[in-house]
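[step 3/7] fold_predict: job queued, chain A
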Amino acid sequence: MPRTKGGPVSYRRHKKVLNLTKGHQATRHTLYRRAHESMLHALSYSYRHRRERKGDMRRLWIRRINAAARVSGLSYSQLMVGLKKLKIEVNRKILSEMATKDFFAFSKVLALVSGKSER
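[step 4/7] structure written:
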């Protein structure tokens, strides 16, 4: 049986890798071996950072809520404990949006919590 080299197949595979590494520097986007290595690292980093981003966003929401709550004299932890005691289930993302875009509504929530903590 004659030997086949698979020229078009490997060409397409190489082209796909080189297209994925288009923005990389130096030989990491021109030479196939280096580009393949670079692509594997880039894909693993992007996978990992998609998960990290969720924690980053949660930390950002907590900072925003804390800053807005401290304006009214409450700390973040006091606010969250008060919300739990009142059985108000509002997630941090929504609280953060309220604190930045609709402070009037957020101040009503703060009033509920601070009224409960004084009793």
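[step 5/7] annotate
The first helix runs from residue 7 to 20.
The chain has one domain: 8-118.
exit 0
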